[in-house]
Amino acid sequence: MIQIEHLHKTYRSGFLMKPKLALKDVSFHVEPGQIYGFIGPNGAGKSTTIKVLTGLLNFDSGKVLVNGISPRDVKSRRFIGYSPEQPYFYDYLTGRELLQFYGKLVGLEGNLLNERITWALQLLHADKDWIDRRLRSYSKGMMQRVGIAQAILGKPKLLILDEPMSGLDPMGRRDVREAILELNRDGVTIFYSSHLLSDVESISHRVAMIVDGRIVREGTVDEITDSCGIEYHVRTREAIAVKDLPEGVVLAGHPQEVICADDVARDRLLRYCLDNSIAVERMEHKRPSLEDVLTEEIARADA
Amino acid sequence: MQTLKHIGIIALNTFRESIRDKILYNIGLLAVGLALFSIVLGEWSVFDRAYVIKSTTLSVMSLSGLLISIFVGISLVQKEIQRRTVLTLLSKPISRATFIVGKYLGLLAVVAVHLALLTCIYYSILFLTNSEPTVSLLTAIYLIFWELAVVIAVALLFSSFSSTTLSALFTLGVYFAGHLSDQLLEQVRFVNKMREVSDSSAALLEKLAVVIHAVFPGLYRYNVTSYVVHGLALPDMYLFWNTVYAIGYVGVFLAIASWWFSRRDFL
Ligand SMILES: Nc1ncnc2c1ncn2[C@@H]1O[C@H](COP(=O)(O)OP(=O)(O)O)[C@@H](O)[C@H]1O
Ligand SMILES: [Mg+2]
Question: Contact A105/B94, CB-based, under 8 Å?
Answer without folding.
Answer: yes
